Predict the structure.
Amino acid sequence: MERPGPLDLPVSRLSIDPAAAPTVSTSHRHGLSLPHWTRTPWAYRLCEGITAGLIYAMVVFSPWAFGTTQEWSIWVMNFAGFALGILLLTKWIIRWRTGYQPSRWGAPSMEDDDDEKRKRQRWSKGITVTLAVLTILVLLYCLVSAVNARAVFHWDTLGFEYHDHYIAWLPHSYDSSSTWFVFWEYLGLALTFWATRDWLLGKTRKERQKERIESEGEPNLVLPRHSNKSWQIPGRLEVLLWILCLNAALLGLEGILQRLDGSGKLLWMVRPRINQEAAGQFGPYAYRGNAAQYYNLVWPICLGFWWTLRQKARRAWTKGVRVGSGPQMLLLPCVVITAACPIISTSRGGAIVAAGGLVSTTVLLLLADRRGHWLARLGIFLLFLVTLGMSTFLGWDQLEDRLKHVFNDDWSGRVQIYENARQMARDFPVLGSGPGTFAPLYQLYRKVGQEWMAQVHDDWLETRITFGWLGFSLVLWLLVTVLLHWRVGTGIESSWVFLCMLWIAVGGCLVHAKYDFPFQIHSVLALFLMHCSLLSCLARKA
């Protein structure tokens, strides 16, 4: 006999103790109906725990699995995303069946009488709905393109098999198999985005207890002096950032040692088909540019995380704590290693983005700490010098020669690729050739003697080719909506410094995407979308 699942149990058994059944209080003021439960259903807690474990595992697994560039590793991430989607759906059903409303960051409160807060809550709801609709539209665009295929490409014969029955005015694909693969990949990423967002906005048990104590105004509660809630990183986000930063630092250390060893095997295990020399690869990535893109997404977040924990420690009232102590100091070597990796990798685009980011973050932190002690500002400047010195010592010799010819050569053949790709964009202007179809179609546009490329080395142009202006507009709309959330929405109140660090990471990847293909690599795209999920949770201070 099978054990009944959470949804097979009667509603009354979803609470921990029937005698301690949750109490519900509602208020219809301002149109609010906000039940408040004192107990979380055990099935809901189970879903939250499994969701957290899956997210942590995906963050660690994705870069180590050779950058998630192989089909097997992509499907592992896809199935993990599907599992997160099922867990999210289960949590929604539990909320609907039981009436349980979890305590969430930025959720409306019955005590909110501020018109500005209510306005921001309405805007936040509108942005969330817009994000959901755009996500569905992008997935539908891929699905319709795969179902309404114009052709399928056979790699064994290197030829197209055309279909007579397709609707020309609907999105269609010139390689249905490639488009189907992209659809399943994007579906897994979309479910991961929404499951991560829902999980991050939820409060932990300690945070709920603190909220209840503060709302009840317990007389014996003694709050720390100089406490500032706006500087408190939520517990779930803090653990996630610790895992991301420590994992990336360990990954970067492995990449540096592998480069110094001169091994042409990824993780000292596998020799890739392309870039078999150590100079062209870095760590688990067969292409050094992809490695640089991954680290450029990590180190600004790591630096912003350190700054936030540092400000929290400075504002907390504690006795016997020496200056410079605390777990946040462990993040400084993580920043140095991950920020140096893009330069050590000798990727020209990655090094330029990293250098620009280092200058921007240094100026930003100096401005943020302009009223602090001069030793603190000196420490920030020394952090910049140490990172630059380490990266220069380990990677400048090879990078200098490559930078000398950055404007004199054809960018490693990119000029020819761009010429051919622009013609493809003119041939598929509105609906595109179908997601994932650039590689099979490029053979028809390359000239005699030119190499058959799988990527444009310009993700903006490749997206326009494969999605057309219609699909490309949906993607841009999604990105703009995410970036606007902090300004008008509600959620986790964040310091402007941490938000700027997040923008620097996302902006650097978008700039690099103009001259490379970060969004064609699953691990880089997944981390980029995790940053976007975090951006959709953050809000400015009330």
Q: What stands out?
A: The first strand starts at residue 151 and ends at 154. The two ends are 54 Å apart (CA to CA).
